[in-house]
Amino acid sequence: MATQLGSIPITLGNLQLAVADDSGVDWVVTDVKGWDSPGLRAESATRQADHGAWPAPVYLDARPITITGSIEAPTQEARDAAVDELTAAVALTDTLLVVEETTPKQVVVRRSGQLLIQLEGLYNATYSAMVTAYDPRRYSTTLQTQSTGLPSVSGGLTIPVSLPISLTSSITGGAFTLINDGSIDTRPVFTISGPAVNPIVVCTHPDGSTDQLTYSATLVLGDQLVIDTDAHTVTLNGTVSRRRYLSGTWPEIGPSSSLAVQWSATAYDAAALLTGTCRSAWM
Question: Which pTM was predicted?
Answer without folding.
Answer: 0.86
